[in-house]
Amino acid sequence: MEKQAVSQERRSRQTRSMAGRILSYFFLTLWAVIVLFPFYWMLLTSVKSYSAYNSEYVPAFFTLQPTLQNYFDAFSAVPLGRYFLNTLIYTGVTTVIMIVVVVLSAYAFARLDFIGRKITFTLFLSLMMIPNELVVITNFVTITNLGLRNTFSGLILPSIASVFYIYLLKENFEQVPEELYKAAKVDGTSDLKYLFKVMMPICQPTIVTIAILKIIECWNAYVWPRLITDNQAYFLVSNGIQEIRENGFGRENIPAMMAAVVVISVPLIVLFLVFHKKIMEGVSRGGTKG
Amino acid sequence: MKMNRFKGWLYLLPALLFLGVFMLYPLVDVVIYSLEEGYNSASQTYFGVGLYNFSYVLHDPYFLQAVKNTLLLVVITVPVSTGLALLISMLLASIPKLRDLYQTVFFLPYVTNTLAVGLVFMILFKKTPYSDGMINALIALFGGESVDFIDGPYWAKMLVMCLYTVWVVMPFKILILTSALASVNPDYYKVARVDATPKWRIFTKITLPMISPMIFYLVITGFIGAFKAYSDEVALFGTNLNAAGMNTIVGYVYDMLYGDSGGYPSYASAAALILFAIVLTITVINLLVSRRHVHYA
């Protein structure tokens, strides 16, 4: 009698946890659908033909006659290739220069001994609190006065400084045993050689993470490029999207617009699919967004 | 030895140059701009020094509208996104399979171009003469009235803006909370199970206190992020946010600086400093409140 009651209770607990699990999966799947739906919709709309799209009063959830025409339109009606190339140049150059600057200063803070090291580092850290919105105004005036509007230099120069990555890499550099540095010194290895031959290979994962986070940031940059370029020849993809939205294709050609959006989104999504572990780990260590 | 001292600075030189020119100098300069009255960007002259720029900005109806929009956005999206992210990470922690897959999918919005996806949201919610749009089709399915969420009434525009903001900020929050939940010492849960502690009690007495520093971190970064909202709004409503009545404080700063309404760096600087003051105040209040409620292990 007692035994029966116990097993009955266990069974009811099991069914309850089973129901809870199903509910968990249901809600998680629901959120996954909400996350993925915009991507599905842009892809779907981009392969609907212009006439098909405009004849649907209630939008259809699938299409039986996919077409690539919109992609041709996207590249021929607006200089999408140009925007793409610009963004590639901007992202590549900014990231490379930033890595050089960050590696050098992180190394100085982590290993080199010089007067005022501590106080300078504290000053660097306090700069992390400064919001971009405060400095953008003067940078806009500076770049304008230097005559660098609508140039790559004007786009790139103010995007390089990033205190946070210096901090992140310095922490990582400090984990490399100092004995290695001292031994290298005894052997007469120069500081620069030690940095390239020992420090950078050991800390490569962090450097790669920093580079990826910077690439994402550059690819999505909108505000600064918008301020500093009004010549379409220097637009980045974000500005290109906005330009397309406001003037391109005529406002009605939404399938072509979506084709452009797909083209612009693909590189980052590919980057994410390849590096998602690294990106998520990097962001949880130091991203701030939202 | 002397050579050594000089060398450290040499390595720092590039960083010092970039930070000096593009961060430190602008920081001083923005204060100077904000105090120069009647600054003319063409002739680079001004009449006098004082607080007029601040008073102008604070009396500008566009600025007040921007403050109202931004505050609403902050007050709605920070609690909603943090709560939702907590729920989703708890659910993630409770399932035995497919956790990595869900986590990866949930993180996707973080790496996408907000302007690009914003455009998709715009199309989903927009009502045009030839189509009511996807969302309105859904609303009609449930027997509701169709609404233009992009050019329609204020509440509808605010709703889309909040929905899109939540969609954009969720990945970061889910990621942080998932790793926070994973780092709670499992011994606590074992002891609680031995004591047959009810689930909600485990949640309020163990889980919540243990992850409270991370929740607090998310609330602070959430506040700061939402106060700086701008590109999401541009994606949804276009560059002329004042006309749409959906401008934000940061949007006001940029509008004062550039574009058809631009050419007033002094007003822009005053507005940016006001924003900074608001964010700083709220962060300090948050810190004070958290001292009493956050449990640091």
Please provide a written account of the structure.
- The complex is a heterodimer of chains A (290) and B (297).
- With 290 residues, chain A is mainly α.
- Chain A is built from 14 helices and no strands.
- Chain A has one domain: Orthogonal Bundle (MetI-like fold), CATH 1.10.3720.10.
- In chain A, 76% of the residues lie in helices and 0% in strands.
- Chain B is an all-alpha fold and 297 residues long.
- Chain B has a domain at 59-105 and 166-293: MetI-like (MetI-like fold).
- The longest helix of chain B has 34 residues, at 2-35.
- The radius of gyration of chain B is 24 Å and the shape is globular.
Can you summarize this structure?
Chain A has 290 residues and is an all-alpha fold.
Comma- or semicolon-separated keywords:
heterodimer; A: 290 residues; mainly alpha; MetI-like fold; 76% helix; B: 297 residues; two-stranded antiparallel ribbon; 1% strand
Which bin fits the share of residues in helices of chain B?
Answer: over 70%
Q: Name the CATH class of chain A.
A: Mainly Alpha
Main sheet: strands, sense, barrel of chain B: 2 strands, antiparallel
Point out poorly predicted stretches of chain A. none
- The overall pLDDT of chain B, averaged over residues, is 88
- The percent range for strand residues of chain A is under 5%
Q: Number of helical runs of chain A? A: 14
Mean pLDDT of chain A: 87
Ends distance of chain A: 58 Å
Shape label of chain B? globular
> What class do helices, strands and sheet pairing of chain B give?
mainly alpha
Shape label of chain A: flat
Which structural class do the helices and strands of chain A define? mainly alpha
* Broad CATH class of the domain at 59-105 and 166-293 in chain B: Mainly Alpha
By CATH, the topology of the domain at 59-105 and 166-293 in chain B is MetI-like fold
Give the strand tally of chain B.
2
CATH topology of chain A: MetI-like fold
The domain count of chain A comes to 1
The first-to-last residue Cα distance of chain B is 44 Å
